Amino acid sequence: MNNTQKITVTALSILVCFIVQTIYAADEIIEEIVVTGTQIKGANISDVLPVSVVDADDIEALGIDSGDELLEQIAEQGTNYFNEAENISGGVNSVRGDMGAFNLRELGTGNTLVLLNGRRMVNSPGFQTELVGGSFVPAMTVNSNLLPVSGIERVEVLREGASAIYGADAVAGVVNTVLKRDFEGFRVRAKINNYQHFKRMANTLTAEWGKDFNDNRTNVSAFLNLFEQDRVRADEDPRMGNGELRPLVVGTPWEGNTSFRNTSVNSLYGQFDAISSVSRYGIRNIITDNAGEFEIYPSGDSRCAVELPGYGTCLAPDGQGVQRRNINDFRDVSGELQRTSLFVYVNHEMANDMESFSELSYYRYDSNTRRHASAAFTSSRLEVGAENYYNPLGPCGSPNRLPESIIGTDVPCGGVRLLIDNYRYAEFPRVVDNGGNTLRFVQGFRGLLGDWDWESAVSYSRAERDDVTHNRVSNTLMQEALNDSTPAAYNPFSAGVDSNIERAQVDVYRKSETTLTTFDVKFSNSSLFSLPAGLVGFLAGIEYRKETFVDDRDPRLDGRIQFIDRDGDTFPLVSDVVNSSPTPSNDGKRIVTSLFAELQIPVLDSIDMQVALRHENFSDINESTTVGKVALGWRPIDQILVRGSWSEAFRAPNLVTVNEKIVARSNSNRTDYTCRYAAENGGDPDQDTLDCVNTTQRTAIGSNNLKPEESTNYSFGIVIEPIENLTFTVDYWSIEKEDTIGLFGTENHLLRDLMLRLQAGNGNCSANTGNPNIDRDEPDDDEIAIFTAAGMCPAGAVNFVADEYANLDTRTTEGHDIGIYYSVDTGIGSFDVRYVATFLDTFEQEGGTLANEIVAAQGSGLVPANYEIVGLGDLTGKDGNIEDKQTFRIIWRKDKFRGSITGLRKGEFYQSSLTLSDGTRWVLDPMTTYNASFDYRTDIGDIDTRFRIGVNNFTDERAPLADRYFGYFADVHSNFGRTYYLDIKLRL
């Protein structure tokens, strides 16, 4: 324990003892008021802070059922990278099941602090990677689906950095959800959703119960939510069910572009390459091409050359095109789901005028999803043994060896080994069972100590997530099956018919857990002393929190069961599961101690100021951070408020980036720039000898040398209230975050390798090894000749690129928010109108030292300017970073009737991977959806009953076309179309 921790723990102990000794002197109960942005009870600073509030009426008008749907309707929320449809190809390394992420201001997952009833929520145990700069970095988030939307009283969104108030991670802002409590009575609600275009039904059952005891001094409230929904199959929709999207771009500059051909070259009709030369066997251009390769096709296909017995397949020499597969045929866009949420609150006024508050919550979900079948990585292909029972070039005497009338007599009697290519083990789809639970307990006390409000609480949260994938294929078991000389061998030539795949199938699991333990003590006084302009408010406190995570991977993934591939590679470069990268099991913990203080200062009668300071120390990275905040509000006249703030914020390295053991990932289509430069300048422009674009393996490892990302935040706004019940707000904001944690990236490392080699010249080649993060083979004579002609020291093919998490780049986001709020009573009822929008004006990422060295080398002409540094530059409007998000709602009430209309507009953006050589971009048009509902309230007997009918997306808007897994950009859009629902609530 370092000195800062010792001081903090000592101070905490003194404060606890102080409370225990004086608690009985408290003579009045203070009602808890949660106001996001300040922790001073009774503070008058609230108007100064840019806080958006979504209340229960807003949520009911939206007709939604899940926390991720609620976030989608909040203007400040950016792209949700944790969604089922977009993660369909991510396998076990993606977060699956019931999951949604917080991402305010598009700054990235993990930059938003999430609170429940004013206290931190535990991160989801599932994490996945997110593109930051040059590569993908582990990202963690609170699961938005923990929040039961029908039990929410309000959601408060603080739209500015608030680490000085709340601590780490409050860089882009804070989301605080306040749930209903102190409830009396019993209410039950049932909601049924029907999807117009799909067979899905979704049902919600909610019960609320509350009662006062002990002469109204004790209230017990409970909230129960049950939710279930059916799966959505991709083949229920023509676009989502078909990977061939090229017919949809006919008549555009992308007509015929293979980017929209999302069928797979890997199918049950594979390609097979003889491992030894077949030139002496006399079967070239009969069975194989000149390279010894042949393809399998369905019998009767015009390309067939030789029929194979018994399975409806044939073979032909390679070069006639592969039999492509539509991998969406068995996929679910969204899986089957059951969710249970239970919240219990006990608030008790104690005899000594102290209040106890207790919270207990439990969340459980189970989901089932069908995914596409596995195909082997090109870096770890399997072989058909020469003795394989079904090998058409197998041993003499084998019933499946092709007859001499076709292959002649020169094929050796021992058979020919075959390398499997373009093959998918697609007899069965992968089936994912994913389930998890989260438990949270809070026990606290609050009261008065003289003029001081005090509050203290301890909380404990634990989240668990189990992921099991069925019908995976073991590399070890499959290779054994491919070497089998008996009829029990695996048959890769039958297109899946009686192939014996079962002997190689395995279940693969991932078990994850996170915990969060906190203890805090806060003292506040809204009238510490008086200034000429008013009373000064003050708060001071300390906080202790402990975070842990465990990520337990299947033995076939984490190296406990190892596979050795044909190149001799094993863990950590190769796993034993087909189509899954090796990933070690992982765990870590962190203890954070905090000291914080806040002041509310009335500078003048018309000017209020907030000043805050916070110090946090982290046990695992030996770092501490101190940040401050100043906010000002000036009301020159009653109808106008001018507000602004400056703040510092920070995001601690998440536990994965600190503790992750070496992880290898294969990245396709990576350019080796050293090779490319040699080819272009050494006489091999078409790369007939050199091969410069390949699947390149990247390794990454965590680091405890990381330090917190730090940001400087500014905001400036004006609030105008020209008449009663009409408010206009405009706020401009800016966030500059330095030391963003990331990986330099495979292609950037390869570009740096070229720079270092060019700087070193072609002398003393034994010492000129280029970038030390790149491991290469020795070049052969032909390669050496090309490099020498280019004036470079020779370099062989890349084996892998080694990377490490580091504080690298600077991210800057700027934008403005607009709000219009109006309520009015008329003869035909009351109307409540709201328009809230956010506009992203700037989103840029600037490189750190390593990237700037390459930029300088390009500026000097040493490195070609058309060799792109990946992940830097202007990110506005790129790949889901929409430039505007606008929401509105109208609620009308008249006697027993109520109606609502809401709208959500997401602006345009472009998909960078589709940009043509002339710079033309594929732009996804804005998408606007509207929801409507109508209520009627009546008494049935003694039961207060409310009936609601509603339709979401009543214009039946469908997502714009994109080159993604289901033909739309699921990180941003939904493509489910119109939905109807019936909602009934009873109050007994």
Describe what this molecule looks like in 3D.
The chain is mainly β and 988 residues long. Helix content is 10%, strand content 45%. The chain has 12 helices and 46 strands. The strands form 8 sheets. The protein has a 22-stranded antiparallel β-barrel. The protein has a 6-stranded antiparallel β-sheet with strand order 14-15-13-12-21-20, with no helix packed on it. Helix 10 packs across helix 12. The longest helix has 20 residues, at 3-22. The two termini are 56 Å apart.
Looking at the structure, what is the overall shape?
globular
Please provide the count of β strands: 46
Low-pLDDT stretches are 1-34
Gap between N and C termini: 56 Å
Mean pLDDT: 91
Topology of helices and strands:
Blueprint: H1 3-22, E1 51-55, H2 56-62, H3 67-72, E2 112-116, E3 119-120, E4 128-132, E5 135-139, E6 152-158, H4 163-166, E7 173-179, E8 185-195, E9 201-213, E10 218-229, E11 232-233, E12 271-274, E13 293-298, E14 306-307, E15 313-317, E16 332-334, E17 336-349, E18 355-371, E19 374-375, E20 383-384, H5 404-407, E21 418-421, E22 424-425, E23 430-449, E24 452-473, H6 475-482, E25 505-531, E26 534-553, H7 555-558, E27 586-604, E28 607-618, E29 623-637, E30 640-651, H8 655-659, E31 663-671, H9 673-681, E32 693-701, E33 709-723, E34 726-742, H10 746-760, E35 774-776, H11 781-789, E36 798-804, E37 806-826, E38 829-846, H12 849-859, E39 873-874, E40 884-894, E41 897-906, E42 909-911, E43 922-924, E44 927-940, E45 943-952, E46 979-987
Parallel strand pairs: 2-7, 32-36
Antiparallel strand pairs: 1-6, 2-3, 4-5, 6-7, 8-9, 8-46, 9-10, 10-17, 11-16, 12-13, 12-21, 13-15, 14-15, 17-18, 18-23, 19-22, 20-21, 23-24, 24-25, 25-26, 26-27, 27-28, 28-29, 29-30, 30-33, 31-32, 33-34, 34-37, 35-36, 37-38, 38-39, 38-40, 40-41, 41-44, 42-43, 44-45, 45-46
